[in-house]
Design brief:
It is built from 5 helices and no strands. The chain is mainly α and about 140 residues long. Keywords: Membrane, Transmembrane, Transmembrane helix.
Length: about 140
């Protein structure tokens, strides 16, 4: 049985120290708390998402971050996650295409939950942390 390799971060001589989790997670918490103040899909919320996402894309594409090595192949558990993700994506696409009020989309069903500040801030934080993980690959 093949042993999983430990996750290591490739660092060069010019690799910054600020891209560690101990630094970035508190920064993401502050951004999420700020983003939670904005109503869903408002201009200010969209500008925050575009600005933060653009900065992360730029950092990832510019090669200014320590990189985590990509796995050589996916684990068996990763394949199991594809089934619910694809199912939810197909349900969302189907209900969006029908535009039937009797069958709302999943995003419309999530709106009452996201009306609260804490839920919106938590979703911002999860989005930031997840996107940061993708940028570092």
């Amino acid at each position: 049985m093949e042993q999983p390799r430990p996750v290591t971060v490739e660092t060069g001589a010019g690799a910054p120290g600020w891209d560690r989790a101990q630094v970035m997670l508190p920064v993401f918490a502050v951004i999420a708390l700020l983003g939670g103040l904005f109503p869903s899909f408002s201009l200010s919320a969209n500008l925050l998402v575009v600005l933060v996402g653009g900065v992360m894309c730029w950092l990832g594409l510019a090669g200014r971050l320590g990189r985590r090595p990509a796995p050589t192949r996916l684990r068996r558990g990763a394949l199991a996650w594809l089934v619910p993700v694809l199912t939810l994506a197909l349900v969302e696409l189907y209900t969006f295409s029908r535009k039937d009020p009797a069958h709302p989309t999943l995003s419309l069903l999530a709106d009452p939950v996201l009306d609260g500040y804490l839920a919106r801030a938590a979703c911002y934080f999860v989005w930031l942390a997840g996107f940061w993980g993708l940028v570092r690959r």
